[in-house]
Specification:
The complex is a heterodimer.
Chain A lengths: L2 H11 L2 H21 L5 H16 L2 H14 L3 E5 L2 H14 L4 E4 L3 H5 L2 H7 L3 E4 L2 H9 L15 H11 L8 H18 L2 E4 L3 E3 L4 E6 L3 H7 L3 E7 L3 E2 L5 H13 L6 E5 L12 E7 L3 H5 L15 H4 L4 H4 L10 H12 L16 H5 L6 H16 L3 H10 L2 H12 L8 H6 L21 H7 L7 E6 L1 H7 L1 H13 L2 E4 L9 H5 L3 H16 L5 E4 L2 H17 L6 H10 E3 H10 L13 E5 L2 H5 L5 H9 L3 E2 L15 H4 L1 H17 L4 E4 L2 H13 L5 E4 H6 L4
Parallel strand pairs in A: 1-10, 2-3, 2-4, 4-7, 5-8, 7-10, 11-12, 11-13, 13-14, 15-16, 15-17, 17-18
Antiparallel strand pairs in A: 5-6, 6-9
Chain B lengths: L4 H16 L3 E5 L2 H14 L10 E3 L7 H10 L3 E2 L4 H6 L2 E6 L1 E3 L4 E5 L3 H8 L3 E7 L3 E2 L2 H7 L7 E5 L4 E2 L7 E2 L6 E7 L7
Classes of the chains: A alpha/beta, B alpha/beta.
Chain lengths: 710, 192
């Protein structure tokens, strides 16, 4: 990671205005969005949008052709080009031919993407942004930090200074007055401008229409007052049918700003008369700039389902800490990372893709149903292929994959004997050894790993068998969790075996983009776990469970090891997370709660993979409630704890404040017990609480359950 | 015409949604009452025949020649010949909308004629007249009803102009009007 990028993160984190504004907004947004979608079947709505957009991107050229014919039949001039430079030249030439001196613009990401303003200004044309946020950052000489709220990073005091310095002295930091001032200053510009430039939120092929969605009313003025209107529209805005705008117009304002509908929606299907009676000159530029290429990429085609609502930014635990500028100059946040890699270059995403902690929040709220975290992993994989795997990483994976060696080294490190203490190496080791000890106590590495401990456990004769997949954390740091699993399953008449050949689940390799390594991990584990005929393959780590159940298949597929897929699928069918299995066994009457359990209050932290991939989040809550305990939900219970595997090591600066917020939310509940279904989260949150000398007990659900059963 | 129970429920929904985004909603039984109310509103707003105090009205199907003369006599500052300068300096803009949408509290207008956009965007107060019978449940219903080949500029207006671009603080009235009054009139014809 380059020092420059690290520094931009540190600068953002040190800006209390930024983190304050974004933090507050993320809380308000979450509640507002939920309210806006009340009574609406979001899943059905986004299925519809995904279908409309995906069907359009499958035939971009056909729709662009249809759009052109329909629009030209109404008198609109349509220019289609793949090349950003051609867009700029077209507009400049038009402006020069028509004697245009001033241009007013309403918000358009497509023109930001090609840096249009600078180009026109160089040629001596006055270009005014009119969206308030865009105007502010234009005056300040900055770039947008958010796709919908471009100036969210600035305080009213900063805005006042910009107005005083760049427009007119004497302004005070009073928001209504600042807004009124902007209205007064921009009004004459609208009235005088010779040309209006807008973007579009939707382009309809069958009618040649564009829809523009705004709140301030500036787009109405930009498309009404100047005699020429130019709309710059990315191909991804194309849809086939007029009526198909409805679901997009339903979702966009709700997802973007938690509004039912924005103040203004303008649907323009052709030139209309100007105020002097002449017909408006309407130009629509359909810009490709790699959208077609993206549409032909089997993985990234999905990203064209984006409707640019920026909800992926609003729910991102990382974005709310660092804001948009860390991501680059145009597109920000989760989807922005993907768009930057395409509309810019893959290597431009090299650093920003590492910001993603893979929590999956954005995937849950995306109205285009885009699996953003998965696409970011795919970027990571392609970057790794393009740049090759660093030597250090190769060395690390060879250690991680040798479980005995890995344990020995971890153990040595944890007791202070670090014979391999080359700075770089230690820092890259997954999970345990981080420079985060300021905020978090680290667990002791067990003297004897679980794989050896289980051999000493006397298990009763059982009718059924389950294979236990430990994963590094339970095997090396929390063997007692593994023992609790054995205890519970034995009570249900299930013998637990620990297949010796099991190795790393491949998540560290996969999340680093090293798919060859991840696929080899998958193959080794499949062989080990299917060696003996067992009824269940159980894991108490959600990341491992997801690997066994989903990622092994994806890893093998990704590098074309298709002959191993049937075995991977056979394994996937047997895999179950601990809480889900325990719940099934209780339902079957194979497990029973003890009588006289003392009820206690508890709170529950949702681990990212457990909730958003396994969808098992209610199961442990219900288990505890069945046993008579009282749940006190914490704020943002399903927000990431900042662990994210090796994220704590790669970006401790970001991980630490995420953890801090989580700890505050846990403490606010007043519950004496915190339950979690993930040993990684237990390590992160438990370590954080321990460092503060908190009295709150942190346990994996299995640890609590083991003592509550007959 | 009299409203059925369902249609008064839909009006209530519209009112709730529109008021939630800071629009004011009024309803009158017929055109005569609507014009009376309009005159009252314009007087209240201090409309008079002086620069900066005028009102502008775009051509409305419900305001014919007779009605127009009546209004001009009652409110001397009310102008029906809309120009951009007049609209830019006016206190109030008036136009008739073609539909209203209950579940978003929106009014919708075919706004190919530029006057309609000038009067609804430039003055600080916008009064939108709409037939009660043109109240529809939502956007999909509207889209099923209209023929996009028949118009070039379709405008949806939902509450007054707003921004939250400075510190996420909601501020009403940026480039468009800061106030929106929606006036439902019961006995009007619905636009084709």
């Amino acid at each position: 990671m380059k020092q420059e990028f690290k520094q931009s993160i540190l600068d953002a984190l040190a800006n209390p205005n930024l983190t304050g504004a974004l933090g507050n907004f993320s809380v308000a947004y979450r509640a507002g969005r939920a309210k806006a979608y009340e009574g609406i079947d979001f899943e059905a709505l986004r299925d519809q949008i995904a279908e409309i957009k995906s069907s359009a991107s499958s035939r971009f050229e056909e729709l662009a052709e249809q759009f052109t014919r329909a629009a030209e039949a109404r008198g609109t001039k349509v220019f289609r080009t793949g090349n950003p430079k051609a867009v700029k030249d077209y507009i400049l030439r038009l402006a020069q031919e028509r004697g245009v001196k001033t241009i007013v613009k309403s918000k358009s990401m497509a023109t930001e993407e090609i840096h249009l303003n600078k180009y026109l200004e160089k040629a001596g044309i006055d270009v005014q942004e009119t969206d308030l946020g865009e105007w502010i950052i234009q005056l300040a000489g900055q770039t947008p930090s958010h796709m919908v709220m471009p100036a969210i990073h600035m305080t009213k005091e900063e805005v006042t200074t910009v107005f005083n310095d760049k427009v007119e002295d004497g302004q005070t930091p009073d928001i209504p007055k600042l807004v009124k001032f902007a209205r007064g200053k921009l009004r004459p510009m609208f009235l005088q401008a010779d040309m209006g430039i807008s973007g579009a939120n939707i382009a309809v092929a069958e009618t040649g229409s564009i829809a523009i969605v705004t709140n301030e009313g500036n787009a109405r003025l930009v498309t009404t007052l100047p005699r020429i209107h130019v709309a710059v529209v990315g191909y991804e805005k194309l849809i086939e049918h007029f009526k198909d705008m409805a679901p997009i117009l339903t979702a966009l304002p709700k997802s973007a700003t938690a509004q039912l509908l924005t103040s203004y929606v303008s649907i323009i299907s052709g030139p209309v008369p100007n105020t002097d009676g002449t017909p408006k000159e309407l130009h629509i530029i359909l810009m490709d700039n790699r959208r077609n290429e993206m549409a032909h990429d089997p993985r990234f085609k999905q990203a064209l389902q984006c409707i640019r609502c920026a909800s992926c930014l609003n729910v991102c635990p990382v974005f709310r800490l660092v804001g948009g500028h860390v991501f680059g100059k145009v597109y920000t946040g989760g989807i922005g990372t993907i768009l930057t890699a395409w509309f810019g270059a893959l290597k431009e995403s090299d650093e920003i893709q590492s910001l993603c902690i893979q929590c999956g929040n954005c995937k849950d709220v995306c109205p285009g149903k885009i699996d953003i975290p998965d696409l970011i992993l795919e970027l990571r994989r392609r970057l790794a292929v393009e740049q090759g795997q660093p030597m250090i990483q190769k060395a690390i994976f060879s250690v991680v994959n040798n479980r005995r060696l890995f344990h020995t080294m971890m153990r040595a490190a944890s007791i202070g004997q670090i014979p391999f203490a080359k700075e770089g190496f230690i820092r890259h080791l997954p999970l345990f050894l981080s420079n985060m000890t300021e905020n978090r106590s680290l667990p002791a590495i067990a003297d004897v790993p679980f794989r050896d401990r289980i051999k000493k456990i006397k298990q009763p004769k059982c009718a059924e068998k389950a294979a236990f997949y430990g994963g590094c954390l339970i095997d090396f740091a929390y063997p007692d969790m593994g023992e609790a699993v054995v205890k519970v399953l034995n009570k249900a008449g299930i013998e637990v075996i620990f297949p010796e050949g099991q190795t790393c689940c491949g998540a560290p390799a996969r999340y680093s983009g090293a798919y060859e390594v991840a696929a080899q991990n998958s193959a080794d584990n499949i062989k080990a776990l299917l060696a003996e005929d067992v009824k269940y393959v159980v894991s108490a780590c959600p990341t491992c469970t997801v690997a066994l159940k989903h990622d092994f298949i994806a890893n093998l597929e990704a590098i074309g090891r298709t002959e191993e897929l049937p075995a991977a699928r056979r394994l996937a069918e047997k895999v179950v997370d601990f809480s889900t299995l325990a719940s099934q066994l209780l339902d079957q009457g194979l497990l029973k709660f003890k009588a006289g359990i003392e009820p206690t209050k508890f709170t529950y932290h949702d681990s990212c993979h457990f909730k958003r991939t396994l969808h098992a989040d209610q199961t442990p809550r219900n288990l505890m409630k069945q046993a008579g305990h009282e749940l006190v939900e914490m704020d943002e219970c399903d927000m990431c704890c900042g662990m994210g595997g090796s994220y704590t090591i790669k970006l401790p600066e970001i991980s630490a404040p995420i953890l801090e917020r989580k700890l505050q939310n846990v403490e606010k509940t007043g519950a004496p017990l915190l339950l979690i279904d993930c040993p990684g989260c237990v390590m992160q949150i438990g370590g954080g609480l321990d460092k503060r000398h908190s009295k709150i007990k942190v346990e994996h659900t299995v640890q609590r359950l083991a003592d509550m059963l007959e | 015409m009299s409203l059925t129970i369902e249609s008064s429920a839909i009006i209530e929904l519209f009112k709730m949604r529109a008021e939630a985004v800071s629009a004011q909603v009024q309803r009158v039984a017929n055109k005569e009452l609507a014009l009376e109310l309009l005159v009252r509103l314009l007087h209240q707003e201090g409309v008079e025949d002086k620069s900066d105090s005028r009102a502008v009205c775009a051509a409305c199907p419900m305001i014919g020649k007779t009605e127009r003369t009546k209004l001009e006599n009652a409110v001397p500052g009310l102008k029906f010949e809309v120009t951009r300068d007049l609209a830019a300096s006016a206190k109030v803009g008036i136009s008739q909308f073609d539909w209203a949408l209950a579940n978003t509290g929106s009014v919708v207008q075919i706004a190919d004629e530029v006057d309609k956009r000038l009067v609804s965007t430039l003055p600080p107060l916008h009064i939108a007249l709409v037939s009660t019978a043109a109240l529809l449940p939502d956007i999909p219903t509207l889209f099923a009803l209209i023929d996009p080949s028949k118009f070039s500029y379709l405008s949806f207006v939902t509450g007054p102009s707003r921004t939250a671009d400075i510190e996420r603080v909601l501020t009403i009235g940026v480039h468009g009007p800061g106030r929106l009054i929606i006036l439902f009139v019961d006995d009007l014809e619905v636009a084709a």
